[in-house]
Amino acid sequence: MNRKRALIADTFCLSKRRRCASDCVTGDSQDIRSSLQYLMTLFSRKLFNDSLPPVVLKHQLYSLHDDKTSVDKQVNELRENGELLMFQLGFDSEAFALVFAEDYRAKVLQGEAGRGTLATVEKFLAKLIPSCSDLSFNKEKMLKEFLFTDSEITQLVKSGVLTVRDAGSWWLSIPNSGKFIKYFIKGRKAVLGMVKKSKYGEILKTELEARRTTAQVKFQMKYHVHDIIGAELVECIQTTSGTLLRYVDGNNN
């Protein structure tokens, strides 16, 4: 598995400025799919007792691809094809989680096994997976298009596939993702702190990736490095020694 991960990682090259993005972008959804698969190998499934599907933040793709517009377009194509689901995580209006639809279905059904809400959740997944690319749903859509009752909507919220957005609308959600969000935020702050505390607020990317994780950093370092680069919380500078990450003053993260 480690050799496979290394081979996938070696297919990505580094570019310039604030995102250490790939110079070798071809511009089709297959390319984005490969990037998602690579990033998902960095997701720590054992941390959640394999109860969560692999989760990638959309902006992590920006650390591998220069053209944000192209990334967004290809992500939307995968969503419209029913291959990919997107979720608003709540802690940041710009933070969107991406999960392969079949991984989501498998983990949701695994969690629902033996529960009284299983049939309603199965009905919801049958409506959602084939062609739905919505981030949220209003009551009219749930009642008139999806044909759910108020009682069934309550069951979907209870199961965790929906969370309340406001009165009469719900976000699509990943069941049991609260711990993921908690660990992700703590890890981001800790890794950014490592950059900030380095001499001149700069550190080589390879050096940061090689750092041992602390109690605050639950994910692999590379997972967080792709996060802080893609979210432009650090600046990338090309040097003869490799890519240098510089802390960006004014970060609130």
TrEMBL record:
Any single GO BP term: positive regulation of Ras protein signal transduction
Domain of life: Eukaryota
Family: Belongs to the STK19 family.
PANTHER family recorded: SERINE/THREONINE-PROTEIN KINASE 19 (PTHR15243), SERINE_THREONINE-PROTEIN KINASE 19 (PTHR15243:SF0)
Name used for this protein in its record: Serine/threonine-protein kinase 19-like isoform X2
Species annotation: Carassius auratus
Gene: LOC113047570
